[in-house]
Design a protein that fits this description.
Elements: H1 2-6, H2 30-40, H3 44-55, H4 60-64, E1 71-72, E2 77-80, E3 98-101, H5 104-119, H6 143-157, H7 163-176, H8 181-187
Antiparallel strand pairs: 1-2, 2-3
Helix pairs in contact: 2-3, 2-6, 3-5, 3-7
């Protein structure tokens, strides 16, 4: 060990790269902003989409892939099914099917969208979220259209908004209610509590 004492101490230079911290995901202010968003929505379909993302914590692909048969109105529940053949290309990121309990207002918006819009316009589609404009009427909504609709609603309500912000808001609301990370992950259809989205 004599050679150890004759060596000069060496500096351990560890490179530490510090960049700007990633911003935490934005959320909206739960019920107060939600009401502003609902009032800024032009159609029942759009109110239903806001509710699916906010009240259910659903991803946009899960919402756009939703069929009428996936809704269990009696139990106030929605079945999220991963389909690879959706006409609009929508796909649930989660490979396993799962159920999400939804509040009454989701089904109220659904009834309004179905009766006052789809049926009133003569639309016969298996999809819950469809185009209402004359061009492409009745075709299932696509990602780009849904993102544009959500952004426009946020702009009218004065709330910068993306579909994923509504999902993060839902998760944050559950955490504030005391839900554990595994419970939130299960509710959001995540395979792991470590998943960020």
């Amino acid at each position: 060990l004599a050679h150890v004492s004759t060596q000069l101490p060496q500096r351990d230079r560890r490179l530490k790269v510090r960049g700007p911290k990633a911003k935490p995901p934005q959320i909206v202010n739960f019920e107060s902003d939600f009401q502003s968003l609902v009032q800024a929505a032009n159609t029942a379909r759009d109110r239903l989409l806001i509710s699916a993302l906010f009240d259910g914590g659903l991803r946009i692909g899960q919402s756009l892939g939703m069929l009428h048969e996936d809704l269990d109105i009696g139990r106030k529940r929605v079945r999220i099914i991963r389909r690879t053949d959706n006409a609009n290309g929508a796909l649930s990121k989660q490979r396993k099917d799962f159920d999400v309990d939804m509040p009454k207002r989701f089904f109220d918006y659904y009834a309004e969208a179905l009766v006052d819009e789809q049926l009133a316009l003569g639309i016969d589609s298996d999809y819950v979220f469809v185009n209402l404009q004359l061009q492409n009427r009745g075709r299932p909504m696509r990602y780009a259209n849904a993102v544009q609709v959500i952004g426009a609603i946020g702009e009218r309500a004065g709330v910068p908004l993306t579909p994923h912000m509504l999902r993060h808001t839902h998760g944050t609301a559950l955490a504030k209610e005391g839900w554990s990370a595994p419970q939130i992950a299960k509710r959001l259809g995540q395979s792991s509590a470590m998943s960020a989205d």
